């Protein structure tokens, strides 16, 4: 189990001051505190033994930073299409100094700009963050050359050319083209804040945008429907943002409209780090949105869409689309998802047999060995991409130590993906035995 906290674990005077502020403002903290963990960021530690079902933390909604806690006179300055994320970031940048002063104790413990610039690909130099985005950052030009970031992030490949032009059958992708989507959200917010505050400093706004992006919790205004873009169902929760993420955290998080509550779902020993779950996300998603990824992530996966779509005829795409099986072809350490298995079966099965199989009515015509071989061929193309990129990253030179740290992190991620692909193929083959 974890060790008891020592003086070296103390995060600093500003964190002690923020804890005092939190308690004085009605946040209930029981048996936990922020602490430093060697080689990692700040996190939450158990300062005593915590029993199962014990409430560790509760924060009233009145202390949250939300669209409802910002003066309407400020919100109304922005175009109607401005994201809630953008308005919150604009408030932190241009809000009333008196109101912002109330957040000083909280803001003093936030990470600095250098941490975001180092960890989040959206802020990396153009050469390192090459993607299929149509958005060009400030002072950047479209870069060419090796695509360092994985395809789920960049939308690009180095070992083969993906299909060009619009697809015959469009579908909503899941956890793909992540950087392009994030860049668009950021640039749209930047455009809207400039329309109201033309002299806005880019770095100041981008920093506050990243704070909101990486430290927000679920929040929807009372009486309102969830926003069309789930990225706008957000609010910031003081003190709760110390929790780090693991997929299967033993921490139950609830929000009843009046307060956020964090409850232990098992016993913790004094000195253990206490995590919460940000949701079941792939490592590529975690890297783009939060600037980190996990060594062991049961929700990790990669997508074969660009590979499989090149191998499908128009009629096969139509068939998959008609059965709601087109796209988001994912592989994980446990094997291939149902859409990928369906696409593989379509390559050799009689159409009527295949339709009955997808509907769950019959497995006539299904050949597990053929399915495994087809999926294995698709994964082999991803493994080829891994080999090409890993070799280039391993042999390449860098201009600075800061760039080397970024590339080392990406290299480690590619090795994860390589291992995931190999494990997925083994899992698919095991089913075929």
Total separate domains? 3
The major sheet is characterized as: 4 strands, antiparallel
Strand content: 5-15%
Q: Give the ordered list of helices and strands.
A: HEEEEHHHHHHHHEEEEEEHEHHEEHHHH
The end-to-end span amounts to 40 Å
> What is the total tally of β strands?
13
Number of helices: 16
- Overall, the morphology is globular
Overall pLDDT score: 92
Describe this structure as you would to a colleague:
It is a single chain. This protein has 433 residues and is an alpha+beta fold. The chain has three domains: 13-63 and 237-286, Beta-clip-like; 66-131 and 177-231, no CATH class; 301-432, no CATH class. It has 16 helices and 13 strands. The chain has helices spanning 13-24, 72-75, 84-94, 97-101, 104-107, 113-119, 151-154, 178-196, 202-215, 283-290, 305-310, 314-322, 338-346, 351-358, 368-395, 401-432; strands at 28-29, 32-36, 42-46, 55-60, 216-218, 234-236, 244-245, 251-255, 259-264, 273-276, 302-303, 330-332, 335-336. The strands form four sheets. Strands 1-4-9-8 form a four-stranded antiparallel β-sheet, with no helix packed on it. Strands 2-3-10-7 form a four-stranded mixed β-sheet, with no helix packed on it. The longest helix has 32 residues, at 401-432. The radius of gyration is 24 Å and the shape is globular. Mean pLDDT is 92; it is low at 1-7.
